[in-house]
Amino acid sequence: MEKEEGAFLTISELAGELGLPQHILRYWETRFPQLRPLQRSGNRRYYRPGDVALARHIHRLLNVEGFTVKGAQKALGEARRAATPAPPPPVDAPLSDAALLARLETIRADLARAIGA
């Protein structure tokens, strides 16, 4: 019986899908802090859809593309940093006149939309 897409997978189901022994997935959990399945009573692991996607990505990096564990860690870290938007400048940071004017125009437009809504 096959589970629906998005269902939680046990470690044995995920290991079977990836063609790996279960201890490899447990090892990956120690090396890739992003991989954190739910653990229920008796330390039974349940991989959420995000965990499954991450495990598939790690598997592809290590076993298909030939990365080392350290290289895969670096690749995942770079991908995460690239996906994270840069934080806005602190409020007390001095702005140039052009940047200040652009910021004030954005605030004016936001206020106009709020009043009009």
From TrEMBL:
Domain HTH merR-type: residue ranges: 8-78
InterPro entries: DNA-bd_dom_put_sf, MerR-type_HTH_dom
PROSITE patterns noted in UniProt: HTH_MERR_2
Top-rank taxon: Bacteria
TM stretches of this protein: none
CDD domains referenced in this protein's UniProt entry, alphabetically: HTH_MlrA-like_sg2 (cd04765)
Signal peptide: none
Protein name per its UniProtKB record: MerR family transcriptional regulator
Organism: Sphingobium cyanobacteriorum
